[in-house]
From TrEMBL:
Membership in a protein family: Belongs to the class-I pyridoxal-phosphate-dependent aminotransferase family.
Domain of life: Eukaryota
Name of the featured protein: Aminotransferase class I/classII large domain-containing protein
A UniProt-annotated Pfam family: Aminotran_1_2
Organism: Ciona savignyi (Pacific transparent sea squirt)
Length: 360
């Protein structure tokens, strides 16, 4: 306890950092892992949740006036951090399989690849994407798409911020999807991981990993901002991982996957029971969210923020996830992680009742 209650190093607790190395070696096999730190080898920094790491990455890479590429729709927490940065947010279209490479290319075609070295060209430097079990859409990018997107990033010299807190919440355990870090031969991927979805969100434990020159800067940033993530929490988590071992961790992940798959299946059952003909949706491949299109409604914002709330149905309007502020959206995000079956059943019934009232 006298160590856990003391200051510790900004990069993170040594036992936890060694666990992070082991987890990445097992799940992502980063091509840069074998290189020396000086040659851009793999490094990691423990952060106070991945949200804390994400904002530090954006603050490191983005200057006012920069063009920044993001998945659209985009996690609202990321929009909350980049909107005040006075940069130009460029939406890149997604579909049920996530970011569309052709959309990324069509955005970038206004520049030449050679512009990447010219700061006055305005060419984007950064692409932010959620590769697996996206928030809010639940979409997982196929490996083929990830490869195409990575080669576009190579052509235009983009840094890819891979925000992947739901990596361990993929339901099809036999084909757990790949990460951009796994493809990253250039050291251009900065990856954000989190213990929030696989262990506990209240721990506020995440980490950023990637090529050492990026991580070194983030550690300096950490020294000036947070000093370090809670020593106590880091020791507790690394102690638990020591006790579990890799096999125990994998068993725990399988239990978590099974739990959320059950929640997803229940959600789909009640959506189908009450909302068929009133709404459309795709089956989430992982994560905690169902992205639902309310047909016959051209913008869900007031319906969700006012009418649904009056019926005590708590959802988020699709407009909250749109890179372009003030956009209309026919979608809403349903979170199925907390609700009981009975609550899901009743919520879908109330939403259906509301949609019928809207149509009458
Ligand atoms: C894609 C993506 N990246 C990063 C994070 C942050 O994770 P962390 O800091 O490691 O815990 C998240 C967490 N997402 C949410 C959190 C949340 C917390 C309270 C209330 C609502 C919340 N809603 O709605 C969310 O989506 C995420 O989805």
């Amino acid at each position: 306890m006298n160590v856990a209650l003391q200051y510790s190093g900004s990069q993170g607790w040594v036992r936890l950092l060694s666990w992070i190395d082991k987890l990445h070696a097992k799940y992502h096999k980063p091509p840069i892992m074998g290189r020396s730190k000086e040659k851009g080898g793999f490094s990691a920094c423990v952060t106070c949740g991945s949200q804390d790491g994400l904002i530090k990455v954006f603050e490191m890479l983005v200057n006012p006036g920069d063009n920044v590429l993001l998945d659209n729709p985009c996690y609202s927490g990321t929009l909350a951090m980049v909107q005040p940065m006075d940069c130009n947010l460029i939406p890149v279209a997604t579909d049920h399989f996530g970011l569309k490479p052709e959309s990324l290319l069509s955005v970038l075609e206004q520049w030449k690849p050679g512009d990447a070295g010219d700061n006055t060209s305005g060419i984007p430097k950064v692409l932010y994407t959620i590769p697996n079990c996206g928030n809010p859409t639940g979409a997982t990018q196929t490996l083929k798409r990830k490869r195409e997107i990575y080669s576009i990033a190579q052509k235009y010299d983009l840094v890819i911020i891979e925000d992947d807190p739901y990596y361990f919440l993929q339901f099809n355990v036999k084909t757990i999807s790949h990460s951009y870090q796994e493809l990253d031969v250039d050291g251009r991927v900065i990856r954000c991981d989190s213990m929030s979805k696989v262990m506990s969100s209240g721990l506020r434990l995440g980490w950023i990993s990637g090529a050492h020159p990026f991580i070194e800067r983030l550690i300096l940033h950490q020294q000036a901002s947070l000093l370090h993530t809670s020593t106590f929490v880091q020791m507790m988590v690394s102690g638990l991982l020591d006790q579990w071992g890799m096999e125990g961790f994998e068993n725990h992940v399988r239990n978590v996957q099974e739990f959320y798959k059950g929640r997803r299946d229940a959600m789909l059952t009640y959506a189908k029971k009450w909302l068929t003909g009133l709404a459309e949706w795709s089956e989430p491949q992982g994560g905690m969210f169902l992205w639902m299109k309310l047909t016959g409604v051209d913008d869900t914002t007031s319906l969700i923020k006012k009418r649904a709330l009056e019926k005590k149905v708590l959802l988020l309007p699709g407009s909250a996830f749109d890179v372009i502020r003030g956009s209309k959206s026919q979608f809403c995000r349903i979170s199925y992680s907390f609700a009981t079956n009975e609550e899901m059943d009743e919520a879908c019934r109330r939403l259906a009742e509301l949609l019928r009232e809207e149509r009458s």
